[in-house]
Specification:
- The chain has about 110 residues and is α/β, with parallel strands linked by helices.
- The protein is about 35% helix and about 25% strand.
- It is built from 4 helices and 5 strands.
- The chain has a 5-stranded mixed β-sheet with strand order 1-3-2-4-5, covered by helices on one side.
- The longest helix is centred in the middle third of the chain and has 16 residues.
């Protein structure tokens, strides 16, 4: 099963903005309880959308530049990109159905 890969400030533009397929990025930190609750949902989506979308995790403690660039103020925050453009965002823990709706906007 596909798992979200780690992305950093250094490879953000290549991995996320340069992706040929839609991308969902989970902004998280190790100390964040709700982040640990959303992670398995993102993993499930990674399996369901394997080959159709990419999934990444960005540790906001280690990658402050990218988190600041997108105005991430609370985590978890999930951003959806298509063709290098921000399509949608989900802030806080949400059910998988909400995450799926957000991701599906990149396929509309």
């Amino acid at each position: 099963m596909a798992k979200p890969a780690d992305v950093t400030d250094g490879d953000w533009d290549t991995q996320v903005l340069g992706s040929e397929v839609p991308v969902m990025v989970d902004f998280w930190a190790p100390w964040c309880g709700p982040c640990r609750m959303v992670a398995p949902l993102v993993e499930e989506l990674a399996g369901e959308y394997e080959g159709k979308a990419r999934f990444y995790k960005l540790n906001t403690d280690d990658n402050v530049r990218t988190a600041s660039r997108y105005g991430i103020r609370s985590i978890p925050t999930l951003l959806v990109f298509k063709g290098g453009e921000l399509v949608d965002q989900v802030i806080g823990f949400r059910p998988k159905s909400d995450l799926k709706k957000s991701l599906d906007k990149a396929f509309a």
